From TrEMBL:
Protein name: Alanine--tRNA ligase
Top-level taxon of origin: Archaea
Similarity comment text for this entry: Belongs to the class-II aminoacyl-tRNA synthetase family.
Binding site for Zn(2+): H600, H604, C704, H708
Predominant location: cytoplasm
Native organism taxonomy: Archaea, Thermoproteota, Thermoprotei, Sulfolobales, Sulfolobaceae
Catalytic activity: tRNA(Ala) + L-alanine + ATP = L-alanyl-tRNA(Ala) + AMP + diphosphate
GO cellular component: cytoplasm
Protein's organism: Acidianus brierleyi
Keyword tags: Aminoacyl-tRNA synthetase, ATP-binding, Cytoplasm, Ligase, Metal-binding, Nucleotide-binding, Protein biosynthesis, RNA-binding, tRNA-binding, Zinc
Amino acid sequence: MIVDEKEYKVRLFNNNYYRKTCNVCKTPFWTKDKERTNCADIPCSDYYFLDLDVSKLNLSVKEARSKFLNFFKRHDHEIIPPKPVLARWREDLYLTIASIVDFQPQVTSGLVPPPANPLVISQPCIRLEDIDNVGITFGRHLTTFEMGGHHAFNYPDKYIYWKDETVELSKEFFTEELGIPEELLTFKESWWEGGGNAGPSFEVTVGGLELATLVFMQYEIKGSDYIPLKLKIVDTGYGIERLAWFTQKTPTAFHAIYGNLVYTFFKKLNQAPVDEEMLKTAARLAGRIDTDHPESIKLHREEVAKKIGEKLEYVDSELTRAARVFQVLDHTKTIALMLADGLVPSNSGEGYLGRLLIRRTLRTMKLLGANADLVDLISEQINYWKEDFPEMLKNKDYILDAIENEEQKFNETISKIPSIVNNLSKKKNITAEDLAQVYDSNGVPPELLTEELKKKGIELQIPFNFYALVAKRHQTAPIKSEKEKSRLTKDVIDFASKFEPTKKLYYTNQYLREFDGNVIGVYKNFIITDQTVFYPEGGGQLGDKGFIITSTGEKYSVIDTQKVSDVILHILDREAKINVGEKVHGEIDWQRRYRLMKHHTATHVILAAAKKLLGDHIWQAGAEKTPEKARLDITHYKMLSKEEIRKIEDMANFVINDRRPVNAFEMNRTEAETKFGVSIYEGGVPNKASIRLLEIKDWDVESCGGTHVSNTSEIGAIKIVNVEKIQDGVIRLEYVAGDMVTNYAREIEDEIDKTSEILGVDRSQLEIRSQRFIEDKKKVDELLNEYRKWYIEYLLENSSKEIYNGVNILILKNIIDQEIVKEIMKRFTIDSSKVVVNIYNNNQKWIIEIATSSNIKVDPILDNLRKIGGKGGGKGTYCNVSFVTVKEDDIINAIKQGLKGSL
């Protein structure tokens, strides 16, 4: 993109500013300093702000945040509370990576208005693309940071402010609020692109440190074309932590952000403090580290050693140690923020990113040789940040319990390293991709793998940005298109797409059972009417069934209902002979629908119960409602106990018996988020300006397009019938509601009756008889084991044996007790040159089992048995072969021939 110089000529620069070109990076920049020759940004400049005698402030992160917000509040910006670090209002993104993400895509696309205009916010953000650089650059890179953003949304008919005002506000903030001389400010020209949008920007730097980026989002990118947007957005990002570092001028940014917590972590990680003059020198020169070229780290440390007059080996060791402590410091805060906002560590989605960060922290602690407890370190972070981020304190119990659970899993993973390395070492060429795959599937840090590989003489270089590469693969969510989501074929979707939205009578009255409508579209066995009471499949609720009667009296069964956007398709049992414009009468299968309504409302009741009992980290990971039963998948870090399951069930039934009203209503999206939070998107994120909310009084509010009962009492009752862990971090609850509870009870009764019949007792005696049966069986098992021991000894002594080619062959006949066969095979083949053969008849087939000692391969024996008609398989020291008809002598001869190639 070639940018016109006019894009960067703003009103402020008419006030004795010079447009210059940096003598290092050749980028244009604006300054009042006539003598300046570079852009005052790294790597063109060191962090010389550490030596500037300007700004007499000494701001903590909290004070920097407050100063930023209040400055813009005084300039008519409304302060907006930040959103969670988990971007759950976005279907394409897991983490909140910038303040503008809070308003994407609905506000930035013009679909809905912003919560205020203009507005200001300090948004905690998480970015993992620079995770490998944290600590090494002494604060230039962090996984979590606060982005102070002031935003203005300029509509064609409503101008707020644009470039002139944005740059002037920036100048005023830095000069008047922070006390920075205007001559030290540089506005470096830049170009921003992201999320399909683009625009010119300024990077505001002072003394080598970039303090803010001012972006003017004014283009939409379509292919190679840049199309002007109707909605032009001021998108700024001020580094709150950098403002604190700039005013404090501490040895590193970590000292400015964490204060005394830095020294606490050094102590808890069993590390002596690193010389602060060395750290300050390293930080001052940190801009010279090119993160794309790891060799620049060595050059940086050589320069530090030279500056302070110390040996390189000492400086390298000390700065490596400091960087690792800073990594743990940074990562533990990020982990606490993630978990506080509801992340559940797992192997997929946002949970994968959380686990990656936890395991990288544990790996760094191992590299430090620290005996520290991660739970203890996270607890320190919670106590330090509890006023800034109240969610940390609110969810402290969950956070610490989840961390303890993750530590246990990590230790279990570490124990698997030897077997993983054994498998890896069999490969001719082990690559970095192999390490990434092992990390994806097992969560084993590459440093621990390469350490074990080295013991086997295999040297492998880990990519410097390994964790960033792995995180990048998992940072966005796969989004399905409308066609991918639909069960309908392309021709049907294309047909339905031509029509106006169908009037949804089931929203007018969810208890309507029938309707009259005009047919506006017919295609094969699909018909579209202008209005309908048939609910189309969506939100985990199945589509309605029923029938449609034409004006001539012909009756069609509706076997399913689907939709394309807002057009509803009735799928008939046969090709429709119905004319467009014809009036039809439709009626749903009410009993089926009513059961669906009960199960759908029950899902909302149970989800809220689980969240209230287990914590705010509970999030809907999937759901399905059928007439027979429903299921709800929730994010949770461990299996539910029997007591927890019963409590959820009791809470749900309490709400049912409490006869709470259930009300569906429409609300402006921005207003809904402000009032109820992003938890309204548990079931998905609708892309509409106005969203339909379902409220169960004093219990739950959630966005939902399904059909529901109007009072919880109509659900009747809820019974949880099954709970299982379907994947790491996801628990599935299955339950029945209404009259399906009766059906479930009948099934249980039938099972009890059958069991009673088998045992020959009355129901009332079933428990006593079962206990007696178990006790009797235990005695029989003990007796059987004694007989087995005797019989095994007998068979070992008296079974047919012969020696062939130095191999001792033991032949068993008609031994069908597998426990006996296994024990004999184990005991007899413990010595070398031994073979056990068991021959028995099973369902008119001859079964041949063969076990060999470790020095004999079974494969040649198996091949010979196949040559005489055997079918079966095996490997190593065991095989199993079957014959329809066979002579014993032929079997023994085939085994003997196979032994020639086995030794």
